[in-house]
Design goal:
This protein is mainly alpha-helical and about 190 residues long. The protein contains eight helices and five strands, in the order ααβββββαααααα. The strands form two sheets. A three-stranded antiparallel β-sheet has the order 1-4-5, with helices on one face. Strands 2-3 form a two-stranded antiparallel ribbon. Bound molecules: zinc ion (ZN). The site of zinc ion has 7 residues, from loops.
Length: about 190
């Protein structure tokens, strides 16, 4: 994976390539497991210990061989007050059914999707209306998140909000797998919001 994500038309190809890279996905799983272990090592706000209470997931857009790694969202339940604590994730972006990687890389800034994007969307079974919803989220809702409010000033020159997520992806440089990993890690706080 030597290519960069910095050219907008490459993102779909990269998404496609990463979906065929089991090492990339096992790294994402390891990051999530590490985060889950950290959550469980802390007590609940009431002081009691947390018990494992994972959410079952039926991930969409997930290659069959990766599915076992994506059927569980790591979550915990307090042994006393029953409060839920869900670990942040680089595999899932919130409650969306599709993998976080797909939500990020399929949401191109074009008004109509490129031929390669349509092909990949078809292969993954992502309906056009779903991509339209993700684009709406990127353009209208993401800029209003506390994550972005706190982080946008760190990007100089400023990231153009009219061209999200491409304008954000472009700011992460390096080999594609690394960029995708850092991008998902950056978005991780949003993985526990509704
Ligand atoms: Zn508690």
């Amino acid at each position: 994976m030597g290519e960069s994500l910095s050219t907008k038309n490459e993102t779909i190809k990269v998404c496609h390539a990463l979906l065929q890279n089991p090492k990339f996905f096992s790294l994402l799983l390891q990051i999530d497991m590490h985060e889950a272990a950290h959550v469980q090592s802390q007590p609940c706000s009431c002081g009691a210990v947390l018990h494992k209470a994972d959410y079952p997931r039926k991930p969409r857009g997930c290659p069959p061989e990766l599915r076992p790694d994506y059927e569980t969202r790591f979550s915990f339940c307090c042994s006393q007050c029953r409060k839920r604590t869900t670990a942040v994730s680089v595999r899932f972006l919130g409650r969306r059914l599709y993998l976080g990687l797909i939500v990020v890389l399929m949401s191109e800034r074009r008004t109509t999707l490129s031929a390669s994007a349509v092909q990949l969307a078809d292969a993954l079974g992502v309906p056009a209306r779903t991509i339209a919803r993700w684009r709406h989220w990127w353009l209208q809702l993401f800029p209003a998140t506390p994550l972005w409010a706190g982080a946008c000033a760190r990007f100089m020159p400023p990231v153009d909000p009219r061209h999200l997520p491409t304008s954000l992806i472009e700011r992460f440089t390096g080999p594609a797998a690394e960029v995708a990993m850092r991008l998902l890690a950056f978005l991780r706080p949003l993985s526990v919001q509704p």
